[in-house]
Write a structure and sequence with these properties.
447 residues, 11 helices, single chain, 20% strand, 16 strands
Length: 447
Amino acid sequence: MCPAGKELPALGARPFPEEADTGQLPNEAGSCWRVRGSAWMGMGRPARRRSPGQLENSGLFLQTFLLLFLCRHVSSQCKILRCNSEYVAATLHLRGPDRGSAFCTALRSYSLCTRRTARTCRGDLAFHSAVHGIEDLMIQNNCSKEGPTAPPRPRPPAPNPHGFESLDMCDYERSFLYKHGRPPGFQHCAAFGDPHIRTFHDDFHTCRVEGSWPLLDNDYLFVQATSSPVAKGSNATVTSKLTIIFKNMKECIDQKVYQAELDNVPAAFQDGSVNGGVRPGGSSLVIRERSPGRHVEIRASYIGTTIAVRQAGRQLSFSIRAAEEVARAFSEEQDLQLCVGGCPRSQRMSRSPRGRGRVPADTARALCREMLPVEDVYFQSCVFDVVTSGDTNFTMAAHGALEDARLFLPDAEKLHIFQAGRGCSLSSPSSLLFLLSCGLWAVLLHF
């Protein structure tokens, strides 16, 4: 018990609730101070008495604060995004009418995942949208609620003893899917023949560029094409050398340089290696030979990118399928990229055959039509190159570029591009209507 008669000393003008019970309060030293009556003894004015209503309001405020805090904590535990990504991963390769049982299994697994996280997802709009969406899809696909489910996706492994993060970070598509619950978007660019440039934005230019020009220059890749005249005295040029630099990414690869020249399209990087090096993610960059001395493919899965390098006739061609984030990862200082902006206006050429060429235009058209039955920009490029160079192997250059586009383009509807004169261009399928409108516009200008 505390000794009697010792009162609490002054601690400044700090209010204390007068409703506190009269009694003894032990201090830090183990002795006691006495609270006299219901007042707080100290310097300054005595504390004002609070009404019972004020106390109730304070209690209500505290309860409301705690409720909001707990709700926020519960919401932060909602795992609906994980459920979404697992469902997308399970159905990513299911296409067509035969997906039946596998699709129903994925839906049941999706439903099970949402039930497991239901308690922590109350009030989450994404969660409730997913639940209703699952029900609709199960009805539309005649899926039974009873049946097998897929095992849950394992959590990513812990960092390895070398200090690198999980190797999943060197698989761009898997990492993107895990983070965003959907597959990444991709873009395509190509340079072939004269050279002709198909940009990431599906613009198509024929260029007279001579010397070295950057096709790409971003945070992950640098690609440079060196062009030389297709024939002595000709304004047309072809790509005679390609240099590709895969920039250092410490978690995945060492910096690697690939270089190809006419009659030298190696299936190895400049240092003789065929992958990204000895780092844990080194296998995320590999080079493969598709046709000896003529066609190589470089897969950089750590940045979701695939590159094809070909030689046809006396020219090199370049095609790339790049993740959108990678293609856009550049600063204002890196603005000169043929894959992004196309040829500078002063370097653009018309593909209409003019004057005498080394091969008659009709002959060139017949040769190109054998490889390219659709008379799009690839066909036009083929005719231009054969007429200008006299080398019928250029039909293979345009055909190879079209085949790469068929593989690399995310949207097959954009495979063929049709152009009528300068400035009239579009991608199929509405080409005929557009060509008619271009023709009408030309007639109006004439009159």
